[in-house]
UniProtKB/TrEMBL annotation:
Residues 28-50 are annotated as: Disordered. GO terms for molecular function: rRNA binding; structural constituent of ribosome. SMART domains: Ribosomal_S4, S4. HAMAP family: Ribosomal_uS4_B. One of the primary rRNA binding proteins, it binds directly to 16S rRNA where it nucleates assembly of the body of the 30S subunit. This is Small ribosomal subunit protein uS4. The gene is rpsD. NCBIfam families: PRK05327.1, rpsD_bact. Part of the 30S ribosomal subunit. Contacts protein S5. The interaction surface between S4 and S5 is involved in control of translational fidelity. One of its GO terms (biological process) is translation. It comes from Prevotella dentalis (strain ATCC 49559 / DSM 3688 / JCM 13448 / NCTC 12043 / ES 2772). Residues 92-156 form the RNA-binding S4 domain.
Length: 202
């Protein structure tokens, strides 16, 4: 499974946001990397800002270009506002749902739990991170994996009422995907309209 494995702090500094989670480096050096990183006078072009927004979304959700383009094409053919539908499709990815449920501390950790067969959907093991979760499906931790330290640590003190489209059952360590989230409920700082404008030029 292809995924980004490069320097995460450098990417977070480029966007000025902790898109991979809490980052001490970003707190100390809150300016872009590189020789001209501290020069804030440089004005970004319209295309540059659109491209940056797409890159931010890809890095945030851990999706590579081909997958992202396929999701965009699917969103463009769906009913509703294309940008919002795109974010909803990204939120429906199994690795993202595992992260949102608090089973893993980051999306990368969630992706690893999925690929290592620790996660179930409706009681069946699913090891495909891009699996699209449907309304009503139950995502849980495999019985023999419930005592994993990474799972217990992530779940300790996690606020399971943060996301209104998910319902958590502490006893079974599982969560139900109630419905696709509304755009207003998705906390990611992504200007999806810029992504739509970028792809409309291609």
């Amino acid at each position: 499974m292809a995924r980004y494995i490069g320097p995460k702090s450098r990417i977070a500094r480029r966007f000025g946001e902790p898109i991979f989670g809490a980052d001490k480096v970003l707190a100390k050096r809150n300016f872009p990397p590189g020789q001209h990183g501290n020069d804030r006078r440089r004005k970004q072009s319209e295309y540059g800002s659109q491209l940056a927004e797409k890159q931010k979304a890809k890095y945030t959700y851990g999706v590579l270009e081909r997958q992202f383009r396929n999701l965009f094409d699917k969103a463009a053919k769906s009913d509703g506002i294309t940008g919002e539908v795109l974010l909803q499709l990204l939120e429906c990815r199994l690795d993202n749902v595992v992260f949102r449920l608090g089973i893993a501390p980051t999306r990368a950790a969630a992706r690893q739990l999925v690929s290592h067969r620790h996660i179930t959907v409706d009681g069946q093991v699913v090891n495909i991170a891009s699996f699209s979760v449907k309304a009503g499906q139950v995502i849980g931790v495999r019985e023999k994996s419930k005592s994993l330290e990474v799972v217990e640590t992530a779940l300790a003190g996690f606020n399971h009422s943060k996301y209104p489209w998910l319902e958590w059952d502490q006893n079974s360590k599982s969560g139900k995907f109630l419905h696709r989230p509304e755009r207003a409920d998705i906390p990611e700082n992504i200007k999806e309209q810029l992504i739509v404008e970028l792809y409309s030029k291609q």
